[in-house]
């Protein structure tokens, strides 16, 4: 049966004073009014709250909301030895920014990157938690390399680090591990290189976990159906609105699990239930129900928290009704 | 008289502490709008006076009355609502505007402030607007069917404002489009919208573009229908001047010569060097000298120091040019 999930991040703050505790605490931490452990406790609390919110909205596989992440790169690259994190750059076509990491030496991650966070989230959730990592190709493309001197070498090293991390996550009980690789859609000609990097990464994938490759910030024109040969269990795609991806899915049979991002997380305009139902109808014909999850097309942090909550609630309501109707038939 | 290599600013200046405090108080309803306006006028007066004192040639009002370059217009235009908070980076959040209805200019948005600033000086004050494409790109759209339709509706509203600025005496009108370089495939839309915004204007028109991935939009961006394009040159990782050697820059250039994102103050020689480098690619009369971008994120004193260096460097280069032409 199709389930309903989310992509990655969740708004860290909302409109009420209680929902702004993280913003306040970060400011207090900067002014040295609270200690690092105190700030960590606030992040724990907010993580717990955003997991609850996802579950309340009907999400069946949740994330930790990446409450501890500044952006898709900084949180990981601060923990990987060999990187120095520097100035702000625009993140794809958004009005958000990331700090560019510069690789200045041999990379290594003697300690795990997100396992502790995963364990915390797992303990705080009554439904499965999906672990999140930024993919090796996207990390390599958005970082600056002053050590390896070759994109492939650099990305392969990152792939081996992320592969180790995937094993650690599996040992900690993760059933779902998602890798975000938006950079591929801006550099489609590099698919052969991307494949080589991913074969290396997948070499470390333990048995029994579901790996999800999320590809957004563009469409798969020129990459589909070749992307179906990548060594992952599921692909996540932007299928909100009239995305070009719809045409591609109709063109060639989809042979993996699909996470269909049918709700637009970049605009506050609410989808109508009717529109979402039509999408589910069409998806049902393209991908068998057991192989289908639906979600927003991006992480939810591009939206105000209220809009994010509303969109999730609407999506899971439509999915539940849709499943109910199918069961009855 | 405006000299050769005129000095100017991109638009915003930092708000003095008393104004920041007043804005916070006004947002909580602790002081009246009228009281806030007094502080805004005081700060505007101070900035105009400072620019005159150090010898800037084309002045700006410093945007003491604007919070954010998009939100200000969204709050003033009809058809917008202001949303909840969204994060930009780190612990920085802003209220991203939402288009919920047909966009219309209900009343002039910047004219009174332009007139106020111009009344304080005999030098020209630039009229400062945010471009339709950038307002579109930095807003949620719940009303228009696509990005183009919203952009074109905004272009009409900005056009009305630009006409009123000209009527009020503005000789220079700057319409900023910092979002332009983000989606190179939408450059034709930027050009179309700017054509509407600047239609029939006799004033000198300028657009400011930043966060550059200029390689992808050059030379196409020269088709944006304005007289001058203002660029951040000092903070650019790309050697723009090399790019302009390959394909000549056919407009006037607003030459950003100090980095607005850095506390460090450039020396006069560094700034002179940047102007002199530009003179290898541009004719002197093509160049206007200014900071890379709005200075509002700097401290007041840092911003003043950076402006002083610009004026001193430009004066020396002018002198050298005059001497060279005499020889």
How would you describe the overall organization of this protein?
The complex is a heterodimer of chains A (329) and B (327). By secondary structure, chain A is α/β, with parallel strands linked by helices. Chain A has one domain (3-10, 58-328): Alpha-Beta Barrel (TIM Barrel), CATH 3.20.20. Chain A has 10 helices and 10 strands. Chain A has helices spanning 21-30, 36-56, 74-77, 115-124, 136-142, 151-171, 191-203, 245-251, 273-286, 305-328; strands at 3-4, 81-90, 97-108, 130-134, 144-145, 176-180, 210-215, 234-238, 257-263, 292-296. In chain A, the strands form 2 sheets. A 7-stranded parallel beta sheet of chain A has the order 1-10-9-8-7-6-4. Chain B contains 11 helices and 9 strands. In chain B, helix 8 links the parallel strand 6 and strand 7. The A-B interface holds A 11-15, 23, 26-27, 30, 70-71, 87-88, 90, 93, 95-99, 267-269, 301-307 and B 83-91, 93, 96, 98, 137-138, 140-142, 179, 182-183, 211, 261.
The overall pLDDT of chain A, averaged over residues, is: 96
Low confidence ranges of chain B: none
In what range is the share of β-strand residues of chain A? 15-25%
The side-by-side strand order for the widest beta sheet of chain A comes to 1-10-9-8-7-6-4
Major sheet attributes of chain A: 7 strands, parallel
Largest interface: A-B, 30 and 22 residues
Total strands of chain B: the figure is 9
Helical coverage of chain B, percent range: 40-55%
Order of strands across the biggest sheet of chain B? 3-5-6-7-8-9
Number of helical runs of chain B?
Answer: 11
Major sheet characteristics of chain B: 6 strands, parallel
The string of secondary-structure elements of chain B, in order, is HHHEEHEHEHEHEHEHEHEH
Work out the helicity level of chain A. Answer: 25-40%
Give the number of helices of chain A: 10
Distance between the termini of chain A: 14 Å
For this structure, the quaternary state is: heterodimer
């Amino acid at each position: 049966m199709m389930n309903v999930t989310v992509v990655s991040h969740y708004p860290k703050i909302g409109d009420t004073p209680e929902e702004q505790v993280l913003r306040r605490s970060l400011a207090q931490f900067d002014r040295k009014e609270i200690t690092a452990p105190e700030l960590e406790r606030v992040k724990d609390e907010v993580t717990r709250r955003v997991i609850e919110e996802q579950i309340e909205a009907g999400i069946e596989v949740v994330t930790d909301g990446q409450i501890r992440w500044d952006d898709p790169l900084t949180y990981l690259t601060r923990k990987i030895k060999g990187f120095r994190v520097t100035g702000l750059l625009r993140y794809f076509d958004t009005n958000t920014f990331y700090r560019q990491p510069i690789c200045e030496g041999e990379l290594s991650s003697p300690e795990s990157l997100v396992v502790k966070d995963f364990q915390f989230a797992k303990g705080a959730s009554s439904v499965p938690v999906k672990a999140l990592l930024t993919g090796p190709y996207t990390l390599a493309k958005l970082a600056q390399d002053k050590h390896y001197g070759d994109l492939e070498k650099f990305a392969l090293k990152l792939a081996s680090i992320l592969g180790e991390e995937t094993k650690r996550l599996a040992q900690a009980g993760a059933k779902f591990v998602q890798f975000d690789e938006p950079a591929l859609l801006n550099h489609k000609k590099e698919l052969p290189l991307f494949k080589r990097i991913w074969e290396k990464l997948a070499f470390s994938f333990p048995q029994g976990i579901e790996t999800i490759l999320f590809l957004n910030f563009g469409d798969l024109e020129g990459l589909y159906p070749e992307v179906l040969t990548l060594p992952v269990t599921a692909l996540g795609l932007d299928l909100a609105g009239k995305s070009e991806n719809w045409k591609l899915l109709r063109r060639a049979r989809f042979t993996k699990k699909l996470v269909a991002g049918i709700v637009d997380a970049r605009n506050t305009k609410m989808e109508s239930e009717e529109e979402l139902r039509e999408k589910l109808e069409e998806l049902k014909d393209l991908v068998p129900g057991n192989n289908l999850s639906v979600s927003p097309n991006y992480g939810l942090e591009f939206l105000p928290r209220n809009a994010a909550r509303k969109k999730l609630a609407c999506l899971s309501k439509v999915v539940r009704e849709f499943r109910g109707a199918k069961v009855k038939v | 008289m405006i000299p050769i290599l005129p000095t100017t600013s991109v638009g915003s200046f930092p708000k003095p502490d008393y104004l920041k405090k007043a804005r916070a108080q006004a947002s909580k309803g602790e002081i009246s709008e009228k009281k806030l306006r007094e502080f805004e006028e005081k700060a505007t007066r101070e900035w105009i006076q400072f620019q005159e004192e150090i010898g800037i040639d084309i002045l700006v009002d410093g945007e003491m009355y604007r919070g954010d370059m998009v939100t200000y217009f969204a709050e003033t235009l009809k058809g917008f609502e202001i949303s909840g908070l969204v994060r930009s980076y780190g612990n920085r959040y802003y209220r991203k505007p939402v288009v919920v209805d047909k966009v219309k200019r209900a009343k002039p948005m910047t004219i009174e402030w332009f007139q106020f600033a111009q009344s304080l000086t005999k030098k020209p004050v630039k009229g400062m607007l945010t471009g339709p494409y950038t307002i579109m790109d930095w807003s949620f759209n719940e009303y228009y069917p696509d990005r183009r339709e919203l952009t074109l509706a905004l272009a009409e509203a900005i056009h009305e404002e630009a006409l009123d600025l000209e009527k009020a005496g503005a000789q220079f009108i700057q319409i900023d489009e910092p979002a332009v370089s983000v989606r190179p495939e939408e450059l034709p839309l930027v050009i179309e919208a700017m054509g509407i915004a600047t239609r029939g204007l006799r004033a000198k028109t300028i657009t400011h573009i930043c966060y550059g991935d200029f390689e992808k939009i050059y030379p196409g961006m020269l088709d944006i229908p304005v007289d001058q394009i203002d660029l951040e040159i000092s903070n650019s990782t790309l050697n723009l001047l090399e790019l302009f050697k390959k394909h000549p820059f056919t407009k006037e250039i607003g030459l950003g010569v100090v980095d607005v994102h850095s506390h460090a103050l450039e020396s006069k020689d560094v700034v002179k060097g940047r102007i002199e480098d530009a003179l290898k690619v541009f004719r002197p009369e093509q160049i206007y000298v200014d900071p890379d971008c709005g200075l509002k994120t700097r401290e007041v004193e840092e911003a003043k120091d950076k402006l002083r260096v610009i004026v001193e460097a430009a004066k020396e280069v002018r002198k050298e040019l005059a001497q060279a032409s005499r020889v």
